Amino acid sequence: MEDVAVDATARTADEARKVALAEGQYEAFLRLFNRLTLRQDRIRLPEVKPDDVANLVRSFEVRDEKTSGIRYLAKLTVHFKGEAFLNLLQLHEIPYATTRSKPVLVLPVFDSGEERMLWRDPNPWRETWVAQTPRDGLVPFVLPLGDLEDVTAIDAAQAALGDQDRLATISKRYEATATLVAQVRSTTDTIFNLPAVYLSLSRYGAGAWGDVYVASFVGTGGESIKELLRQAVEQTLHRIEESWKLDNLLQSGDEGEVTVVIPLRGLEDWLKIEKRLERIPSVLESRLVYLSREEARVRLRFQGGGMQLQRALLQSDLVLSFQPYQGGQALVLKLGEGAESAPGAP
Predict the structure, then answer these.
(1) What phi and psi, each to the nearest 5 degrees, are found at residue 57?
(2) Residue 267 lies in a domain
(3) Rounded to whole angstroms, how far apart are CA atoms 112 and 116?
(4) Which among 15, 18, 42 is positioned nearest to 30, based on CA atoms?
(5) Within this chain, do residues 269 and 317 fall inside the same structural domain, yes or no?
(6) How far is it, in rounded angstroms, from Cα 220 to Cα 57?
(7) What local confidence, expressed as pLDDT, does residue 166 receive?
(8) Quick check: 143 and 125 in contact, CB under 8 A?
């Protein structure tokens, strides 16, 4: 986990440093735990002591250190022992997801009541996204630059209407697997005369979250429009993250094995696929059982079901499907279009 800010005070700078490092590792542990688990399951984690967390840490890096006689500040990057961390979740029977989604492009369309805005400033909805887009989740979000190429590719009306060609063009530019058109309308609640924000989400492209979602946020507690926009971003992030985790949730002991055929044009194809398989957390073992110039056969041991394996592979540009092969049917694994269009990419 990156950019874990620590700030501790003690009797001496050395003591403050020890306290800060322990607190930072614990904070990193909580961030990783929240990243992998559903919100509803977080109460199932029992108390974890600092020594327990330290035993899960493989290494950590420190930067931006500042010290005084009694105070220590820094930022940490903490690397955990992956298998040990997952064993802890399995021990307490907490389901988790490890598959990271390809990027999702967000187009924040703001409806002021007079006009729809996407690229024009000020766009308070876009500004809220810039301020709150997270880095810890399994679903990485990308905001477009808003430069001339973006402005030419699509406007607010085209995004709101779901112009498929325009959306595909801008999605391709940012190498996103899906585009999320997030529209909000800022208004005043007609019954209570309170500030209100109405949210509408439409997803286009790959994924499995559902295509349309609507919600409303009313300032019943004195919230400003700015605060209601922040709540709308949080709701959007929560919905997408939780839906992705549900689709990729793994249980302790939920494993499978398959043998896949990999057509090859040469050794380079096999090396690319081998590296990608090694980086997929839910693929527990990849055992080569046959290799020639034309094909490889690999026995995969994986967590989850077949659809989850297929989805996890797809996030690494690997396509798994039943296909006619050498006069019969076989489970075939190939490099996807994204990998094919990037020669030399691992």
Answers:
(1) -85, 125
(2) yes
(3) 7
(4) 42
(5) yes
(6) 44
(7) 94
(8) no
Q: What mean pLDDT comes out for the span 302-306?
A: 89
Residue 217 CA to residue 64 CA, distance in Å, equals: 39
Same domain? 85 vs 114: no
Confidence of residue 334 (pLDDT cuts 50, 70, 90): very high
Q: Are residues 15 and 56 in the same domain?
A: yes
Domain residues for the domain of 59 are: 4-91
Residue with tokens 């286009």: 204
Q: Which amino acid is at 300?
A: L
pTM: 0.81
CA angle 191, 195, 196 (to 5 degrees): 80
Contact in structure between 332 and 322 (CB atoms under 8 Å): yes
d(CA 25, CA 1): 9
Domain count, the chain: 3
Residue 339 has pLDDT above 60, yes or no: no
| DSSP letters for 28-60 | HHHHHHHHHS-GGGGGGS----HHHHHHHEEEE
Residue 115 in any domain: the answer is yes
